[in-house]
Amino acid sequence: MDIKDYIAQWCKLDYILPEDIPNIELYMDQVTTFMDQHFSTSKRYKDDKTLTKTMINNYTKNKLMPPPVKKKYNKNQIYLLIYIYYLKNILSINDIQKLLNPLIEHFYEPSSVSGTIDFPGIYQSLYELEHEHHYKIIESIQDTIDLAQSAFPDLEGEDQTLLQNFAIIALLSYDIFLRKQIIERMIDNLYTPSKKDSQAKETEK
Q1: N or C: which end of the chain has fewer CB within 10 A?
Q2: Is residue 180 within 8 Å of 87, Cβ to Cβ?
Q3: CA 186 – CA 180 distance, rounded (Å)
Q4: Alpha carbons 82 and 65: distance in angstroms, whole number
Q5: What pLDDT is attached to residue 196?
């Protein structure tokens, strides 16, 4: 099988459909089962867990999401866990907290300051954007493969394949590194507390 065939197979979008998010509150075991079932194809190894009880408890402890009420998790908390699942692979707990806390503050409750959009609406919009962007990502990866496979033209056979595969991985890794740098700079510059907020916290002390 050609490397591009593998990429097409591996790039299948594993995403929880908006209509599949439960409308009822779930206990912890039900939450972990739900996540495992819907993200099963994104696991590297069969026995890998998407989110464990310990992870979820730590997310609550670190204020990435509100705690459960009477040991039950509502729909908005499921949305947050889905975001955390994706973000935790590239960002620190501190950075995820900086990203999610403003969302919780402005849109978590129906009577939010915004009043125009809620968590289901945000999730639906992101779902549509990510589906549209998914195909552009695949095209970008295929362009990277073409570039890497043009390298080492003086070699042939196993040596050439070895180095071209290494080049693909190196270029994709550089891509991820650069994007991660941009994400971290955005968080540092766009998600820092305003002077007004900082003064308000100092007054509260």
Answers
A1: C
A2: no
A3: 10
A4: 11
A5: 46
Distance CA 197, CA 188 (A): 16
Is the full-model pTM beyond 0.90? no
Instruction: Report the b/e string of 112-147 with b at 16+ CB within 10 A.
Output: beeeeebbeeebbeeeeeeeeeeeeebeebeebbee
**113-122, 166-175, 188-197: range with lowest mean pLDDT:** 188-197
Percent pLDDT > 90 in the chain is 64
49 residue type, one letter:
K
Residue 84 burial (10 A CB sphere; 0-12, 13-18, 19+): buried
Q: Which two tokens mark 17?
A: 């459909």
- Per-residue pLDDT for 111 more than 60? no
Residue 66, Ramachandran bin (φ over 0: left; ψ between -120 and 50: alpha; else beta): beta
